[in-house]
Write a structure and sequence with these properties.
This protein is α+β, with helices and mostly antiparallel strands. The protein has helices spanning 43-50, 65-75, 135-150, 165-173, 206-209; strands spanning 22-26, 30-36, 81-88, 91-99, 116-123, 155-158, 177-184, 187-188, 193-194, 197-205. The protein is built from five helices and ten strands; from the N terminus they run E-E-H-H-E-E-E-H-E-H-E-E-E-E-H.
């Protein structure tokens, strides 16, 4: 009588972690890395952030974790829109999205220039240790360094909600110049729905960023 074949346990296959597209050490604040968002593996942390009341301007309040993952999985198929997870010494600290303005609804609201790039930024909740002085400014500096030096763009456009006074003030303090207040039209597609938005445009030119 033959012996039974031994059972071999197989480890679950793990998808490789996306490699950073930018890494920058910030004096006194650690090392900041920007890596592509993994729509499924990062869904839990991102869903937790976008579900908070403070993130209502992000437009994802009330969505399930699976819906959030589906949105970013769809974005991952696009050449014009990209999502990234920003980490500080390995810990997630922000959600970054970049996009081509001419392929986005914001492109209907201002004269797009060659070299423009749009940016959306959602900061992680403040931890129990509180806000560290200079952290937000340092984070924005890292992001603009990525956009201008690695992506070789000429100007950044942001479109925070007009009611989001904190975000607007943060961008202006960083050297952005206020543009017009505009109405971003509703987007209703099978893959994604984005409601109408009253936005305050602001711009940061490459030469201004490097002169500050």
């Amino acid at each position: 009588m033959s012996e039974p074949e031994p059972t071999i346990a197989h480890e679950p296959v793990r998808e490789p972690v996306p490699q950073p597209v930018h890494e920058q050490a910030v004096d006194g604040l650690g090392t900041v890395r920007i890596r592509p968002l993994d729509p499924r593996a990062d869904a839990e942390v991102v869903h937790g952030w976008v579900s908070e009341e403070r993130a209502s301007f992000w437009g994802m309040n009330g969505l399930t974790r699976e819906q959030v993952a589906d949105i970013y999985a769809h974005m991952d198929t696009l050449d014009t829109h990209h999502a990234f997870l920003v980490l500080r010494d390995g810990d997630p600290v922000a959600l970054l999205q970049t996009y081509e303005p001419e392929a986005d609804r914001v492109g209907e609201c201002y004269d797009v220039r060659p070299g423009d790039i749009g940016v959306h930024l959602l900061l992680a909740p403040v931890g129990p240790q509180g806000t560290q002085p200079g952290w937000t400014s340092a984070l924005l500096t890292v992001i603009t360094s990525y956009v201008f030096q690695i992506l070789d763009r000429q100007r950044v456009v942001v479109d925070p909600d007009v009611r989001n006074e904190k975000a607007i003030a943060r961008f202006l303090k960083q050297g952005f110049m206020a543009g017009p207040a505009v109405v971003l039209p509703e987007v209703d597609l099978p893959e994604v729905y984005i409601p109408r938005k009253d936005a305050q445009l602001a711009f940061l030119a490459r030469e201004v960023a490097f002169s500050v």
